[in-house]
Design goal:
This protein is α+β, with helices and mostly antiparallel strands and 122 residues long. 29% of the residues lie in helices and 31% in strands. It has 4 helices and 5 strands. It has a 5-stranded antiparallel beta sheet.
């Protein structure tokens, strides 16, 4: 009976206005701009986590963001692994375009130059 009630009603995440989105990129990210982005995430972002392939590093980052803090630990991923980051929070529809734009601006192109994404800050 409880399963039927849960399945028929909205999830508690949706009722609380919490949503998520995933960012994926085949390009390596520049570490300093990425960390600056994490430090400036809007208060509506409650949690973020993922795997990041950083430019000019042999090891890739596993990042976690919660309670306004972030940490990066290092590990080896298979060659060609893509960056995957999930952002969870409130009002993400309002923030998602700027966050995606800022993440794209962290990308390093294949020729070693920074991506020509927007320079807007989050």
């Amino acid at each position: 009976r409880e399963r039927a009630l849960t399945a028929s009603g909205p999830s508690h995440r949706h009722a609380d206005g919490i949503s998520s989105f995933v960012y994926r990129s085949k390009h390596a990210l520049r570490q300093a701009p990425f960390e600056k982005l994490l430090e400036g995430l809007p208060a509506d972002v409650l949690r973020a986590k993922g795997l990041v392939r950083f430019a000019e590093r042999e090891w890739q980052g596993v990042f976690n963001f919660t309670c306004g803090r972030h940490e990066i630990t290092w590990m080896r991923l298979p060659e060609g692994a893509e960056t995957q980051a999930v952002f969870i929070g409130r009002n993400l529809a309002r923030h998602e375009p700027r966050l995606r734009d800022a993440l794209a601006a962290c990308e390093q192109r294949d020729d070693g130059r920074p991506s020509e994404g927007s320079t807007n800050h989050v």
